[in-house]
Amino acid sequence: MKKVIVFIVLSCVVVACSTVLFTGRKQLLLVPDSEVLALSSANYREFIGSTPASQDKANTALVKKVGAKISKAVENYLLANGREKEISQYSWEFSLVKGNVVNAFCMPGGKVVFYEGILPVTQNETGIAVVMGHEVAHAVAKHSSERLSHHMMVQYGAALADILSSKQSAPVRTGIKTLYGIGSQVGVILPFSRTHEYEADQLGLIFMAMAGYDPAAAVGFWERMAAMGGDKGLELLSTHPSDANRIAKIKSLLPEAQKYYSKK
Fold first, then answer.
1. Which one of 14, 48, 98, 104 is most buried, by most CB atoms within 10 A?
2. pLDDT per residue over 73-83, tens digit each?
3. pTM for this one?
4. Which residues, at least 6 apart from 32, have a Cβ–Cβ distance to it below 8 Å?
5. Is 135 in the active site?
C-alpha cells in the first residue's frame, strides 16, 4: 500500500506539470481542464441564477467593456505567440451583481463577477481595469486548478502519513495527523495562495497595460483598499499578501508592465 501511494504522488508530479504565462513558474495540474471548466460553468450558472444582477446599467456596461478589452488583449497575445489553442479554454463572461461586498472573483474559463461594493474603491474605468486584470490573470494562470491539485496532494500525503504511523499508539497517531494538518496548511496551501495573488497582480498589470490602461493606477487602488482597514491578520496565516507587501511588489513590477502600455 505504501508503494502504491508513493507511486501515485510521484506519477502526478511527473505527468501534470505546466508553465504559467509570463512568469514561467512551474505548476502542478492534476485535474483535466475539461472537468474543471465544466464544474466552473455549472457553479457560475448556479451563482448567477441565485444572485440579483445590478440594476446600475452604466456600471454594468463599464464592467463588460473593460472585461472585453482585457480578455481580447490576452487572446491577441496568445494568438501572436503560438498559443492559439489555449483560447478555446475561455468562454468569457463579465457580470456586476448586487451587494455591498468589496470583492470580485473569477472562475476557471473566464467567468468574472464584480460586486457593486467594490466600485467605490475602483472609482473609474481604469480602477475597474486593475481588478479585472487581476481576476482574468487568475483564470489565465489556472490558479483554481492548481489549488485543487495542491489539496489533492495534501490528501495523498495525509494517507501516506497515516500508513507510516500505523504501528504507533493512538495518541501519537493523533498528534502526527494534527501536525501534518497544520504543516500542510501553513507550509503548502497558504503560501501557494499568496503566490497566486502576487502572480495575479503581476499578470494583471501586464494584461491591463496591453488593453490600454495605465498599470500605475494599481498602486492607488491597493492603497485605497489598505485604507479601508480591517483585521487582515498575519500574512503567514493568510491566503493574501499583506497590504504593504503587495503595494511594494506592485511598485517593483511597474517598469515591466509599462513596456506593454501605450496610450490610445
1. 104
2. 999 999 999 88
3. 0.75
4. none
5. yes
